[in-house]
Amino acid sequence: VVGFVLPSAETDLCIPNSGSGWLGSIVYLGMMVGAFFWGGLADKVGRKQSLLICMSVNGFFAFLSSFVQGYGFFLFCRLLSGFGIGGAIPTVFSYFAEVLAREKRGEHLSWLCMFWMIGGIYASAMAWAIIPHYGWSFSMGSAYQFHSWR
């Protein structure tokens, strides 16, 4: 989805070419740190609790980033959203594997990976359908603009 959002976000946030690379990579930086942090925490406090917290972090900062108007705070929100995503990925696979019967574990983990990719394709299709219609937007005064890429 990031590939679909980048051109519209660059235009809307008035980002120079030198700063546009951070839009795509900041989430992955957060994911890298988040996977390390949440993976260790999940072993200490429990996978379910850790998964609930990291998904809440991701959801909150992803939601907040859709309303942010400045480039720096947008990057900060995307970094923390990536931090939550990074915790969900290793935690969900190990948590799911714990509750599966040993003889079906490989098959069901493969299904989980497949549907993860189907979700990614679905999200990309929705981005492709929604974002080109950049004409719809709303504003609250002159300071706040909300366009379709958000």
UniProtKB/TrEMBL annotation:
GO molecular function: transmembrane transporter activity
InterPro entries for the chain: MFS, MFS_dom, MFS_trans_sf, Sugar_transporter_CS
Membrane-spanning segments: 20-38, 50-67, 73-97, 109-131
Pfam family, one: MFS_1
Membrane topology term: Multi-pass membrane protein
Signal peptide bounds: none
Ranges where the Major facilitator superfamily (MFS) profile domain occurs: 1-150
Compartments (UniProt record): Membrane
Coiled coil: none
Gene Ontology cellular-component annotations: membrane
Lineage top rank: taxon: Eukaryota
Main location: membrane
Keyword Transmembrane helix on entry: yes
Keyword Protein biosynthesis: no
Keywords noted in UniProt: Membrane, Transmembrane, Transmembrane helix, Transport
Name of protein: Synaptic vesicle glycoprotein 2C
Organism ancestry: Eukaryota, Metazoa, Chordata, Craniata, Vertebrata
